[in-house]
Design brief:
Blueprint lengths: L2 H26 L12 E2 L1 H10 L3 E2 L19 E2 H14 L4 E4 L17 E5 L2 H10 L1 E4 L2 E3 L5 E5 L2 E5 L7
Parallel strand pairs: 2-4
Antiparallel strand pairs: 1-3, 4-5, 5-9, 6-7, 7-8, 8-9
Length: about 170
């Protein structure tokens, strides 16, 4: 057999093996999961649409959504994983959730900050407080960590949540 025929057959075997593997991984993927790019940024409109469709509410002390005003609640440039994470929290807890802080200015700086799209604030509620404090691991200082690594910080009158990922969406 010539070398070119061997290479053609080898190529065909490799391609077939790749396709079978790809089909098998697609067939075994959980149809309820979504691919979420942790770094994908959403517009305010995209984020509020996702929140509304999932049954979450949001409020702003200034009744506005301007990212450059600290009394507004903006989701402009929020990470898709953060929005999916708060939706995962609502679905897992069964609690009504009102988001009170997003990517607006006025929060602490840092890599995993509100401004950079990693953090959301929510109102406190007996349902949400109980779920977080009973379902996640206390890591001290009014902080709890989920099994996915997201951190929930009870900061006086609200939850400050850092979403490193979507929490299993």
């Amino acid at each position: 057999m010539s070398m070119s025929k061997v290479l053609k057959r080898l190529s065909a075997v490799i391609v077939a093996a790749f396709l079978v593997g790809a089909m098998a991984s697609t067939a075994t993927a959980d149809p309820g999961t979504q691919d979420v790019d942790a770094n994908a940024k959403l517009s305010h409109s995209q984020a509020t649409t996702m929140l509304s469709e999932a049954g979450l509410t949001w409020s702003s002390s200034g009744n506005c959504s301007d990212r450059n005003r600290p009394n507004c609640t903006s989701f402009d440039q929020v990470n898709e994983a953060s929005i999916q994470g708060i939706i995962t929290l609502k679905n897992a807890s069964g609690c009504a959730i009102n988001v009170t802080g997003g990517t607006e200015t006025g929060h602490a700086d840092g890599t995993y900050s509100h401004w950079n799209g990693y953090k959301l604030d929510t109102s406190l509620s007996a349902c949400l407080n109980g779920y977080i404090q009973n379902s996640f691991t206390s890591i001290g200082g009014n902080r709890w960590e989920s099994s996915s690594g997201n951190v929930y910080y009870k900061e006086g009158n609200h939850w400050d949540i850092t979403y490193y990922n979507c929490g299993g969406c």
